[in-house]
Specification:
single chain; alpha+beta; Umud Fragment, subunit A; 6 helices; 20% helix; globular; disordered N terminus
């Protein structure tokens, strides 16, 4: 709209006509006010990354094809926030459901972040028979699962849980190997209260609850909601984890960024 608003050349002082005919001068912001504004912005940003949303990168192939190596996710940390408080009913919290993809702190090895899909919730009875997952006696529909016919044979991929100690596997977390049979009843593993059983979609290439145990409720960080960026890069297990290897991989990615970006996955919703 032309002539609706004017700014003087110095852009430092604006004069407005008050309701009573007074002329009010808007002074430039002081250094103190700039610092105050900056602090408020930082606090809001910290609040958002602490309680609402956080960015994560997929380093392994365990969730392919749902999530690819190099996918960068925004994780909703607020959705599973309810802990039984009175105000939970008025906030958009919900319980963790079977089929949810979750980001959580791994229970061992300095607690790195893992991403898997929830297969069993507290009280569920789970078993795998001939590669098919059954929950509470019913076959679970898993359209997201990928199988690799060329993968090495893994007994836990075909049938689970183990019937006795003779069926335990060498690649199990030692603590889980010691306690898994105490959770097996009538050929099914029973998920305890406040625990979850999680597995990768890339079923033949996923080290998951079959091998290291349940996910604690308090370890769950949130649910991935969108892929905000995806770039083709080397898998974590194919790269030099030292500083030189990380730097070379980073520079290589930057130099080939346009050609390696998976544009079709940008802003792709995660299910």
């Amino acid at each position: 709209m032309q002539g609706n608003c004017k700014m003087n050349e110095t852009a430092q002082v604006a004069e407005v006509q008050g309701a009573a005919g007074n002329r009010e001068v808007v002074r430039p912001a002081t250094l103190h006010e700039y610092i105050e504004s900056l602090l408020v912005t930082v606090i809001l940003a910290l609040f958002g990354t602490t309680f609402v949303v956080q960015a994560f990168k997929i380093p392994s192939q365990s969730m392919e094809p749902t999530l690819l190596v190099g996918d960068h996710l925004l994780v909703n940390k607020f959705i599973f926030g309810g802990r039984g408080h009175w105000y939970d009913r008025v906030l958009p919290y919900r319980e963790i459901r079977r089929g949810d993809i979750i980001v959580f702190k791994f229970p061992y090895q300095d607690h790195p972040h893992y991403v898997k899909r929830v297969i069993g919730t507290p009280g569920d009875r789970i078993k795998i028979v001939d590669q098919l997952v059954y929950v509470n006696g019913k076959r679970l529909n898993e359209p997201y699962v990928a199988r690799d016919p060329a993968a090495p044979y893994d007994p836990f991929g075909d049938n689970f849980p183990p019937r006795n100690a003779q069926f335990l596997q060498a690649n199990m977390q030692p603590e889980w190997a010691d306690q898994i049979l105490s959770n097996v009843h009538d050929g099914e593993i029973v998920v305890p209260p406040d625990k979850y059983f999680a597995m990768g979609d890339n079923r033949d290439h996923s080290w998951d609850s079959r091998f290291w145990g349940f996910v604690d409720r308090d370890a769950v960080m949130g649910r991935p909601v969108v892929i905000y960026w995806s770039v083709l890069g080397a898998r974590e297990d194919e790269t030099d984890r030292g500083l030189n290897g990380w730097l070379l991989n980073f520079l290589d990615t930057i130099l080939h960024l346009p050609s390696r970006t998976r544009w079709s996955r940008m802003l792709h919703e995660v299910h």
